[in-house]
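Hi R.,

Here are the chain sequences for the assembly we discussed:
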Amino acid sequence: MKLIRPSVVALHPYIPGEQLHVEGLIKLNTNENPYPPSPRVDEVVRSLSVESLRLYPDPLATELRAVIADLHRCKVENVFVGNGSDETLALCTRAFVPPNGAVASFDPSYSLYPVLSAIADAPMKLLPLADDFSWTEPPADVAPLFFLTTPNAPTGTMYPREKVEAFCKTFQGVVVLDEAYADFAPDNFMDVALSLPNVLVSRTLSKSYSLAGIRLGYAVGPTPLIEALNKIRDSYNVNAPTQRIGAAALRDQTWMRTNAQKIIATRENTADALRVRGWNVFPSATNFLFARPLAASAADLMQHLRANKILVRHFSAPRINDYLRITIGSDEQMQAFLAAI
Ligand SMILES: Cc1ncc(COP(=O)(O)O)c(C=O)c1O
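And here is the predicted structure of the full complex:
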């Protein structure tokens, strides 16, 4: 008796970064923010009543979506909210890929996309970036859905605006611009999502707003695409505390921007310090660095750092296994990292 779908039996699940709980650990492996969330989040958390948990959340997340619409100067109908941006991305594979359709993305980019396409029983078309991980032109009809990570992960690099815009205009299907790291970048493509019929921007509160723990992401774009996502999501996909906490965090743009600026400054200092040590460091528009150590192998160095209670991320995929992805922590944490290497 076969109890499990063959595609699930064959599935290689996504491997998240380790969440170790060890005293004194310096966690530079999952692109979390080293600074606390806004004090307004603290106020909301303290005001949450146990009694209110009896009730279901607002299924339309009206207040939260209004705050997001305000922030991006669009209508509430242009905003979808999800249980982390990973949920948004998963729903895109269900809403926009017809039976026998494929999912496409560049390689390397976010390693969750092939897992989502496998779950949706859709073939994944991975289009290799150039040798230096710069842009290569994807065919306009490669798949009904293209996940374009901008700035890219794990390389941290930004693609030229003209390339992204021209691609979005000619692509025959839906382009999801995964802007998980856009708040650390000099540019973003929200204007493109709000002007073309086939483009969504996906954002998260996990990185720049220091809220990975509440699981909140959102998508902005044309109403028909947003409606499609809303039709197929769970009715209560964003829980009540998360709706309130998320709205409070998004209303405090000053807090988020100040922390993002601090992280950008630390990022540039750390990149310089690594280059002085002979590392090959990609220019980053994110809250992490993608870098190749001078002497040791990346895998060995990761283990050495781990033994010193410093976690960084190493990927074993062939084109990127010489590199480490290092989340930018506080200045003190980065000093400890530099001392350990
Ligand atoms: C490119 C990219 N997209 C999405 C996510 C997931 O974000 P969330 O925490 O909102 O699910 C990540 C997290 O690492 C990411 O790197």
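The pocket of pyridoxal-5'-phosphate is lined by residues 31, 84-86, 110, 149, 153, 178, 180, 204, 206, 212, 217 (CB under 6 Å). The mean pLDDT is 97.

Let me know if anything looks off.

Best,
T.
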